[in-house]
Amino acid sequence: MGRTLAEKVYDAHVVRRAEGEPDLLYIDLHLVHEVTSPQAFDGLRMAGRRVRRPDLTIATEDHNVPTTDLLKPIADPVSRTQVETLRKNCSEFGVRLHPMGDEGQGIVHVIGPQLGLTQPGMTVVCGDSHTSTHGAFGALAFGIGTSEVEHVLATQTLPQVKPKTMAVTVEGGLPAGVTAKDLILAIIARIGTGGGQGHIVEYRGEAIRSLSMEGRMTVCNMSIEAGARAGMIAPDETTFEYLKGRPHAPRGEEWDRAVEYWTSLRTDDDAVFDKEVVIDAAELTPFVTWGTNPGQGLPLGDSVPDPATLADPVERQSAERALEYMGLTAGTPLRDIAVDTVFVGSCTNGRIEDLRAVAGVLRGRKVADGVRMLVVPGSMKVKKQAEDEGLNEVISAAGAEWREAGCSMCLAMNPDKLTPGERSASTSNRNFEGRQGPGGRTHLVSPAVAAATAVTGRLAAPADL
Amino acid sequence: MEAFTTYTGRAVPLRRSNVDTDQIIPAVWLKQVSRTGFDKGLFSAWREDPEFVLNQPRYEGAGILVAGPDFGTGSSREHAVWALQQYGFRVVIAARFGDIFRNNSTKMGLLPVVLTGEQVEALQSAVEKDPALEITVDLDGREVRWGADTASFEIDDYTRWRLMEGLDDIGLTLRHADAISGFEGDRAAWLPVTL
Ligand code: SF4
């Protein structure tokens, strides 16, 4: 029987397989950041262990970094200690680090692909659930906890039980004005926050193939919001085109050999998935969330749902609570919801194409009175490229704030936060209670919807302008 | 990690679904570089509400958390597991768990028990009726017992063995250092290095 893409990559990394035990899986790339690593390095130190493969490890500072005044020390002493701890650990254990202010610094899931370190067929892990982003290249990439970070540092492997596989096939082409973010929000609303549990999702079909690498990363990024372990897309010409010439991509004859192997990384025609979902792209429109989990989303043209109409008691209760937290009334058209803040950025939508989409909408327009808009590039390289293209000028001229790279208001560990009761339209990936600041209310949207919303002050798509 | 065989004690019902790890331990608590002191951060936003279950004296000292489906979704932060353990929980029972949370729990010796939605509901109701109810979670027998009721749960043999022995994964893996070196010798030459 044929194998799926996920199975091919998984099988190629099994170091050891024994009856009744998990497989031991080799890890090709380990990404590290300041939040989930200090206790892991401590563990190594206490056991007298070293990092087995510093040459397969790379670290960056992203979650805590401020997005203004990079030359000053971090004001929050606890954040500062965490960043300084990473610096000490990296120098002690010989790990390459891109610190704040460095031209290679950025969100961990933006810098891996940007450097060409993320390649098809690799295994990639990080102490961060959005590691699934790297699956856009046909890599098997997943988030791990701190105990596992320590395990990978010490052994470059992880004990794993082979996950099940799931196909999400998006047939047909995406209608004009519908982006990768709308697509993944619609997929999560369809399969639910637990729909992918225990599975690696492979996204397939015409609509997926037509996406750029940036769009593919947006889709794979949010696999975790559907509960999946990882998301993958088979590598193709779009992938190779993106990788070619990047600092860590293979060159010369090595490139040819790599491409030959990468081309074999596709699901065989006779392979069987454990679960399959088919989505018709033609039905999709811009999509936004109204609740407090990423599965609580609807087309922008709809209204806030009435919990009483939900048959499942658990869903009903969760919707009731969500409406109360979000300060929304059932039946309100989503387009009538006014926001205070618009956040563009994160590992979901902080790449160059996202910033181009935002600038495209903002060009010649103004952010509505009373709305604050933050635009935070995913990395210093993205920032530089955007500035070379003049996008920052368009964004600033519209009245939005152009910031330095980092996670920023995606999780509000730095000073960029919502205040209690404040409402945002955000291009990030989580609308959990308090995620963007205690009491803050988040609507997840695409970059295009974020920009249009900033202009009107209410949830809107560019077509509404 | 702490070995787990059987735990007998009281439980607290958390009637919420999709309790993501941002709720279990909000991001502001993640700035610590040590492994201790996370108990104060457990559900810290919800604990501001005096009515929240963990603030109700009748559930004080409970070692088992009985939660709604999709517990521990979202962020990979292992701090969520540390917070639950440091607060005093040894077991979390739910109908579904986030994959990474579940994995992190078994690395630390916090037992995640999957029961059906109906069983969880029955247990929550029983505890609400009698907060002093004694519940036994028996990993060896793969059973949860309370009053006259018994619910069995599944857990793979290997994870069960590791939990019961309290074994550290790194030590187990390093027994296969030769296999790892052998694998490394065969890796493709084009694979990237960071240094
Ligand atoms: S941008 Fe947000 S989701 Fe992505 S790594 Fe940073 S905090 Fe996590």
Report, as a whole number of angstroms, the end-to-end distance of chain A: 52 Å
Pair of chains with the largest interface and how many residues each contributes:
A-B, 84 and 61 residues
Quaternary state of this entry equals heterodimer
CATH architectural designation of the largest domain in chain A: 2-Layer Sandwich
Number of strands of chain B: 8
Short structural summary:
With 465 residues, chain A is α/β, with parallel strands linked by helices. Chain A is built from 16 helices and 19 strands. In chain A, the strands form five sheets. Chain A has a five-stranded parallel sheet with strand order 5-4-3-6-7, sandwiched between helices. A five-stranded parallel sheet of chain A has the order 17-16-15-18-19, covered by helices on one side. A four-stranded parallel sheet of chain A has the order 11-10-9-12.
Question: What do these coordinates show?
Answer:
- The complex is a heterodimer of chains A (465) and B (195).
- Helices cover 32% and strands 17% of the residues of chain A.
- Chain A has 465 residues and is α/β, with parallel strands linked by helices.
- The longest helix of chain A has 17 residues, at 77-93.
- In chain A, α6 links the parallel β9 and β10.
- Chain A has 3 domains: 5-160, Aconitase, domain 3, CATH 3.30.499.10; 164-283, Aconitase, Domain 2 (3-Layer(aba) Sandwich); 287-464, Aconitase, domain 3 (2-Layer Sandwich).
- The model of chain A has no long low-confidence stretch (mean pLDDT 97).
- Chain A has helices spanning 5-11, 38-47, 77-93, 108-114, 146-155, 180-191, 206-209, 213-221, 237-243, 252-263, 313-326, 346-349, 352-362, 380-388, 391-397, 447-456; strands at 14-16, 23-26, 29-33, 57-60, 96-98, 123-126, 140-143, 157-160, 164-171, 199-204, 230-232, 275-280, 287-289, 297-299, 341-344, 372-375, 401-402, 423-426, 441-444.
- In chain A, α6 packs parallel to α8 (213-221).
- Chain A starts with a helix and ends in a 9-residue tail after the last helix.
- Chain B is an alpha/beta fold.
- Chain B has one domain: Alpha-Beta Barrel (Aconitase, domain 4), CATH 3.20.19.
- Chain B has 7 helices and 8 strands; from the N terminus they run ββαβαβαβαβββααα.
- Chain B has helices spanning 21-24, 79-87, 99-108, 117-129, 157-165, 169-174, 177-185, and strands spanning 6-9, 11-14, 64-67, 91-94, 111-114, 135-138, 143-146, 149-152.
- In chain B, the strands form 2 sheets. Chain B has a 4-stranded antiparallel β-sheet, with no helix packed on it. A 4-stranded parallel β-sheet of chain B has the order 2-3-4-5.
- In chain B, β4, α3 (99-108) and β5 form a beta-alpha-beta unit.
- Chain B is globular.
- The two termini of chain B are 34 Å apart.
- The model of chain B has no long low-confidence stretch (mean pLDDT 96).
- Chains A and B meet through α2, α3, α5, α10 and α11 of A and α3, α6 and α7 of B.
- Bound molecules: iron/sulfur cluster.
- Iron/sulfur cluster is lined by residues 62-63, 107-109, 128, 130, 346-347, 407, 410-411, 428-429 of chain A.
